[in-house]
Amino acid sequence: MTEVTSDSERAAQLRDKVVDELLERGEIVSREVEAAMRKVERHKFAPEASLEDAYQTFNAVVTKRNERGNAVSSVSAPQIQAFMLEQAGVRPGMRVLEVGSGGLNAAYLAELVGDAGEVTTVDIDPEVTERAARLLAEASYPDVRVVLADATEGVAAHAPYDVIMVTVGAWDIPPAWVKQLTEDGRLVVPLRIRGLQRSVAFQREADRLVSTSVRICGFVPMQGPGAHDSQFLLVTGTDEIALRFDDGLPAEPSLLDNAVRGPRAETWTGVTVKRGEPIDMLQMYMATVMSGFCIMSVDKDLDTGIVAPWNKRFSMAAVDGPNFAYITPRLTEDEQFFEYGVHALGPDGADFAEVIAGHVRTWDREHRGGPGPRIAVYPAGTPDGRIPELPGGRVIDKDHCRVTLSWPSTATAAGDQDVQYHTAEQGE
Ligand SMILES: C[S@@+](CC[C@H](N)C(=O)[O-])C[C@H]1O[C@@H](n2cnc3c(N)ncnc32)[C@H](O)[C@@H]1O
């Protein structure tokens, strides 16, 4: 008995510490989210973890892995749950659909909608729904509806929803998620855009969605019909240098066969960022403006010769016919900043490097510190002429929708879209 009391006291202390930290960092901004996160006993939804592990501000608790050892289900990290709940703007009386059921986030949602609201959570995995239903009941949230289904169809039986909050990585936006929203409903979704995952809060406007907030995040990928694999181009025919494409390989990958033989063109942009400064926006900007955008990783244990990025796991890169280039930082002399540069390979490498360096400089001059990209989603098949963001923006075609990215310049941008954080410390 004594032990139980001290455990729950310890849990309450740890929970308050996490919430205080999230408030201080500005991840929690509303009293409602603060109250929900102070109240719901997070550790009861992660009984397999120690109290200390359950209350790590930036760490998820993995609850299921597949046969390859990859996480397929988890209780998300408090930091991500906090800012996504803020993005969702859930108010008392709302009807909410959560996609992906850990139990905990549904309990937060139940606190936020109150007695007059409704929470439905859906998961594709029967082990996950069984677990979530059990833990929700044990933690006194028996009214949360737990549904076993593939969420690409939404849950029509309880629609429309004021908020649909997706807690699994999605590449596409299935039509059901838009249709099952109320007319001005909100969709929060960890969306993969050209290989970059961002939690985007969208407002519905008739048949389109328009972003109000964009935050970096990391989620396990969607399973079932909504799953989408990236494609890899192995530049040397082995894993040594791999280029990951999210929306299809270049038309003629074999043109790159001789590129790594060199020579390497190199140019430096004069654009610097402080160590630890968010570079999330730079990534999104380059993903928008560079044709042939991809993510490069190189074998961390090998000397990959003239292909020598600072960050071996993740570098922004692009392919243009027989040329490929990547963006890489170097430390300034005082070691307080990174300067961004471009390494390029192929017959027109020097020109290609200059084009990319020009984009980095444009970001620095016109968009740095601004509100970030405006992301809009249109049904697949919408003609270019009906998309006001075009020309000027980039359109990315998915199976079910057309995602557009456009960048108001810092000088002209109104609005307060919230964009964060991938730091230069990571050198990406
Ligand atoms: C990160 S977990 C959800 C976290 C959770 N909401 C929480 O409370 O922290 C992601 C979940 O999405 C589920 N999932 C994956 N693909 C799905 C699909 N097509 N439909 C429904 N659920 C899916 C997985 O089974 C997994 O349980």
Largest sheet: 11 strands, mixed
Unique bound compounds: S-adenosylmethionine
Roughly what fraction of the amino acids lie in strands? 25-35%
The chain-level structural class is alpha+beta
Write the H/E string, N to C.
HHHEEHEHEHEEHEEEEEEHEEEEHEEEE
At CATH level 2, the architecture of the largest domain is 3-Layer(aba) Sandwich
> Low-confidence segments, ≥5 residues, pLDDT <50?
412-416, 418-428
Count every beta strand, where a strand is a DSSP E run of 2 or more residues.
Answer: 20
Quaternary structure type: single chain
Into which percent range does the helicity of residues fall? 10-25%
Give the averaged pLDDT, no decimals.
Answer: 92
How widely separated are the two ends?
Answer: 50 Å
Q: What is the overall silhouette?
A: globular
Keywords for this entry:
TATA-Binding Protein; 9 helices; eleven-stranded mixed beta sheet; seven-stranded antiparallel beta sheet; 428 residues; binds S-adenosylmethionine; 2 domains; single chain; disordered C terminus; Rossmann fold; alpha+beta
In short:
Helix content is 24%, strand content 31%.
What report would you give on this structure?
This protein has 428 residues and is of the alpha+beta class. The chain has two domains: 225 residues, Rossmann fold (3-Layer(aba) Sandwich); 137 residues, TATA-Binding Protein, CATH 3.30.310. The chain is built from nine helices and 20 strands. The strands form three sheets. Strands 3, 4, 5, 6, 7, 8, 9, 17, 18, 19 and 20 form an eleven-stranded mixed β-sheet that branches. The chain has a seven-stranded antiparallel β-sheet with strand order 10-11-13-14-15-16-12, with helices on one face. The chain has a two-stranded antiparallel sheet with strand order 1-2. Strand 3, helix 5 and strand 4 form a beta-alpha-beta unit. Helix 2 packs across helix 5 and helix 8 packs across helix 9. The radius of gyration is 23 Å and the shape is globular. The structure holds S-adenosylmethionine. S-adenosylmethionine binds next to strand 2, strand 3, helix 5 and strand 4.
